[in-house]
Amino acid sequence: MGKTVLVAACALIDPDGRVLIAQRPPGKAMAGLWEFPGGKVEPEERPEDALIRELAEELGITVKEACLAPFTFASHSYPDFHLLMPLFLCRRWESTPTAREHSALKWMRVKDLGSIPMPPADLPLIPMLRDLL
Description:
By secondary structure, the protein is an alpha+beta fold. It has a single domain, classed as Nucleoside Triphosphate Pyrophosphohydrolase, CATH 3.90.79.10. It is about 15% helix and about 30% strand. The protein contains 2 helices and 7 strands. The protein has helices at about 45-60, 125-130; strands spanning about 5-10, 20-25, 35, 40, 70-75, 80-90, 105-110. Strands 4-1-6-5 form a 4-stranded mixed sheet, covered by helices on one side. The longest helix is centred in the middle third of the chain and has 13 residues, at about 45-60. The radius of gyration is 14 Å and the shape is globular. The N and C termini lie far apart (about 35 Å).
């Protein structure tokens, strides 16, 4: 069992109640799988700050901390590390999300998320989102 890795993720929710998911690019671990956008929390960084930074880098959007609502978290053991992933909800941001680092982006209804391949850590988050939306 390796170290624990802290990754902050975000469920961006549009006015129709759809969630944005992003496809991991070729060459990255779990390439081709669809995930909630976000990224690794650096040492000395708060999860909220990491998410604001990652959403700007990956999607080109501006998110204010007040618009990030802590929702739930995933705790999942991969073979070489343990992932701890707080999931935040966000319904307000500036600009249109664009795939800067992912292969593709998709707005999907939560009930349809089970039909696409996602990393194991993301899967337990889907029923919780389904209950919310």
